Amino acid sequence: MEISPNAVPPVCRIQDYGKFLYEKDKSERAARKKQKVIIIKEVKFSVTVDEHDYQTKKNQAIRFLHDGDKVKASLRFRGRQMAHRELGYQIINRLIQDVGEGAIVEFHPRMEGTTLHAILAPGKKVEPPKKPDAAKAEQAKKAAAKPAEAVEPEQTPAAQA
Question: Where does 40-122 sit in CATH, by number?
Answer without folding.
Answer: 3.30.110.10
